[in-house]
Amino acid sequence: MSRNRRLIMSPPPEVWSLLSDGHRYGEWVTGTQRVLDTDPHWPRAGARLRVRVGIGALTLDDTCVVRICEPERRLELEARAEPFGAARIAIELIPWGEHTLVVLEWHPLRGPGTRMHGLPVDYVVAVRNGMMLTKLARIAAREHTCGTGRTPPEGPEPGRRLSAPS
C-alpha cells in the first residue's frame, strides 16, 4: 500500500469541487492523457470515469468506478487498467483550520499488481501520487486565490508534503 499526505491551502469544499468534476481529472492525475468519458452523476457511488493513461505512444484505457462517496470528506475509487488488474484509491479530506489535509491511499486489488506489491512498486506509486497531490494543491490554491481576489503567498509552492512517501 502507498499512502501520501498533503496540506492544501484551500478549504475542503474547494478541494472537493475539483475531485467531483470528472472532466478535470486530466489536469491533476499524473499519467492521464485524456478524459474519454464521465458519467453525468459523477462522483456518486457506481459512477464511472474513463481515461486514457500512458506515456507517449504507450497508452491504455482505464476505468475508475466510484465505490464510496461522502461529499467533502471521502472518495474511494476502483481503478481498472486491464491487463494490469485493479487498485483501490482512497482520498480523504480532513479539515485543517482553513485548509485541507488530503490523504491518498493506493492498494492493488487484483491482477499482477497484487504479486508485485512491495517496496519497489509502492515507492514508484508513492512518487506518482505525490506528484498528483502537488498538482491538485497548485490548482486548488490558484483557484482559491482567483476566487478571493488575494495574491498568492510568497515562498514555497502552495501546499506542502507533510511526510515522505510511505
TrEMBL record:
Residues 143-166 are annotated as: Disordered. InterPro entries: COQ10_START (IPR005031), START-like_dom_sf (IPR023393). Residues 11-108 form the Coenzyme Q-binding protein COQ10 START domain. It holds the Pfam family Polyketide_cyc. This is Activator of Hsp90 ATPase homolog 1-like protein. It comes from Streptomyces qinglanensis.
